[in-house]
Design goal:
heterodimer, A: 76 residues, mainly beta, Ubiquitin-like (UB roll), 5-stranded mixed β-sheet, 1 helix, globular, B: 586 residues, alpha+beta, Aldehyde Ferredoxin Oxidoreductase,  A, domain 1, Aldehyde Ferredoxin Oxidoreductase Protein, subunit A, domain 2, Aldehyde:ferredoxin oxidoreductase (chain B), Ald_Fedxn_OxRdtase_N_sf (chain B), 4 iron, 4 sulfur cluster binding (chain B), OxRdtase_Ald_Fedxn_C (chain B)
Chain lengths: 76, 586
Amino acid sequence: MRIGVEVNDFFEKYGGKTGKFEMEIDPGFNVQKLLQKLNIPQDRVGFVIVNQKRVDFDYVFSEGDEVHILPFAIGG
Amino acid sequence: MLGEDFVRVLYIDLENRKADIRERKDLYKYLGGTGVAAKLLEENMKKGLPPLHEEQPLIISIGPLSTIFPVVTKAVATFISPHTGEYGESHAGGRLAMAMRNAGYDAIVITGRAHKPTYLLITDRNIEFKDARAMWGLDIEEVGRVVREREPGPGKRSIIRIGRAGENLVTYSCVNVDTYRHFGRLGMGAVFGSKNLKAMIIMGERDLPISNLKEYFKTYQEIYKKATQTDAMAKYHELGTPLNIKVLNAINSLPTKNLLQSTFEHADDISGERFAEKNLIRKVSCTGCPIGCIHIGQFRREFDKGYEYESIAVSYDHELVYALGSLLGIRTSDEVLEIIEEVELAGLDAMTTGVVLAWATEALQKGLITKEDTLADLEFGNTKEYIKAIDYIADRANEFYYTIGNGLNEAVKKYGGQEFALLYGGNEMAGYHTGYGFALGQTVGARHSHLDNAGYSYDQSAKELKDEEIVDYVIKEEKERNVLTSLCICLFARKVYDRPTILKALHSIGIDWTDDDLTRLGNDIFFTKLRIKKELGYSLENYRFPKRVFETPTLWGRMDEERLNRLLRMYIDRVEKEYEDWSRGQ
């Protein structure tokens, strides 16, 4: 099944893909596995938003999910 | 004073054109920065007199680690805020800390009002009171240029100055520090203006007496590596704080159009990424910082017909992009920079200016004020009209601008609209509509800054919201930040300077403090500030939050008014009890 992914540019330094793209995934694929595949360290992730809602790392994707991976906002 | 057990304070009396230096052993236990500046304010303030009375003091302080360790770059100013009428504290980087260090002053206390517009030249050898009549009325850029041309010491000096807003006593006028940094919030610019003080130039050539160079150098290297070779500070250099725009927008936390919305349809167009692509031309640092977090953006402006263009560079960060961007509905990065430039030249605090203009826009829409008041067609997204209004604020162009030049607290008394005036604790809101932690934190923070206690950080990292935990976080974090800011460590480096690192740095220059000493210091500063606030009549009893903050979703959904009031009550009760215990112990 396919999901839409958006990875914030902040994660570019870890070598994985950033920006908006689509991915083909197997059933049972969760956020943790997605982060591993994209080479994003879990402890650097602030928010995983799926279909406008914040989810945990164990969230299992469904067909057509739109996932957005973001760092925490920082003080300025 | 480096290598000594006293704080060297320069006292300047503008009225009588006199200066005095005192070596204060009794202040040594406050280290410097916010600790020393708060104590000096308490000693010198006149509680019965208005904030801008000539006898009220203005204090600037650095700390024992200033400039000689990486990212220890800030100077801390205290004053009675003309904006809130109570404790005023503001921090700035640039070259000021280095210049004070080289001039040999740990703190400067300025009192009195000069008989005519004056600028001060402060060096390690003398203090000069110079005629600034020809500078009065000049904007920030012009006065900087004139001072640079007249005075010696390029590269080593710090030039701090005010613009028209400060001269006209706008209560949220800032003091510009070395062009790209500011004592931004709470109206220090008006304090300068009230003293007929247009600018200060500080420089010196004093030695830095470090007795154990070997240990100092080793400690410096360790901290330098931590700051530059780990992830601790990388994000401040990369996109800088504007990385927040996309993040906050995705989590319903980006205040937009006077917080009618917490997401912005043009967020991508004013994001840190877009600024980096289109406008970023360089990154610079405060003296003594290896990071380079100050992002300079450039835009092009047509200044005459016939294809006449100029390029203009200004610094930008999250708070500016929020307050002068999303909050005003501005749709492009170029336009945000254009508005920032106007705010810079006038010498205003960007955050309060944006929040005041956002309120005025809605007040005009709702008919609480008219075009005769605003003189400009204020509407979200209309850059040109906002630029006009910024000048009107700085010049206090009419009765309406006179009133809003005293901030939203004053504006709502006259025109109404309290329910959509974005104020927390009397100060205009910062750019994080993340939830209860932020709302409580800015309200109760000593200087009503989001950086007092970083409640926005709690909102983001919490798995679930617990009332006790929120109150506890806000109190503990503020005390800990008092330790960092008494040492003038930039808060961006808080992960670099954990307690063991601070103690090691102090030890390397001969200050043998313990972890308990630091805890005592954070606590003492916290309650000293509260004591000052109480002396000035400050109280959060009967405090009312603006309705708007409950109407617009945050990261945690819509906030519940009752719950936020309950949190405030819990905070007040706990702090009052701790304050009583602390006072008894004094």
